[in-house]
Amino acid sequence: MDLKLDATSRTPAVILDSAGAHLGISGESYPEDVTGFYAELTSALNAYFESGAKTLTTQIKLTYFNSSSARALMELLELLDEAAGAGIRITVNWFCDPDDDITREFAEDIAADVANAKVVICDLV
Amino acid sequence: MEFDRFFKFSQLLLRDEFVLSYSGYVSEDILLAVGNTLRVRLEDHARDGTQIRNVFSIFVELMQNIIRYGVEGPHPGSDAGEKPSFGIVMVSENDGHMDIIAGNYVAKDEAKQLVDRVNELQCHSHDELRHMYRERLRRSPDRASKGASLGLIEIARRSTLPVMCEIMPASGSLSFFMIRASV
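Structure tokens for the assembled complex are given below, as produced in the milestone run.
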């Protein structure tokens, strides 16, 4: 269930560390195949949650993502929120560039629809 | 092509504060290569990181729209394999802002609908576009569904001037669709 994907010029680095209960997504996201790229993360996360995980801290540090990735990120947050609804303690620290209002608004809008997980929006420094 | 026509073409492109243009078949590989070049060029031309981000973001959405919805154009190749989309994109600096213009062929009967969708975005405020984006995100990405695509709304949100578009008749059953955003 652990996952480690190195960043490429158009896909972010992704690390799911089950022992450390940590998920990190950082870099840029405008993959050629958005669905395929995020499906790998979704299946690793599902396996992690089904293994009896109690907690997960997620760190999102994306400096750029396109609109197709925005939809994938919304679905990722929905998956995390569902797991939180099932009793897993989930925190998402979402780092946004303070100069990028639109990305911050996107993070705020996604966070507003999350009922069970804790989403904290912070400044990327 | 004769040299005099080729020279006229080069003179058209090199006027004004020209940053970058690409014309030809558009694929994901082309998007990546031209996008990387655009970023390097913007380092020399752009005001700040915010302008670079907004220009690059609009560029990616425009190129992906061409890849997804564009057609081959008036000189189609063989029937075999995946159909490449033909498009042209240009970034230029005008009076302190950057214009990003893209053009591609579309089926004549789809052109009107596309223009309506872009024009609809023009009359919305920043907050209304934000709300539209959020609503659109929750709907299926079905191409035929009503209203502007997520990509078009993204372009409108990052453009500081209203997004403009126009269609010109092209040969046969095709129209040429042009769209401009400014940052």
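The CA atoms of residues 70 and 116 of chain A lie 20 Å apart. The helical segments of chain A are 34-50, 67-85, 101-112. Further analysis is deferred to the final report.
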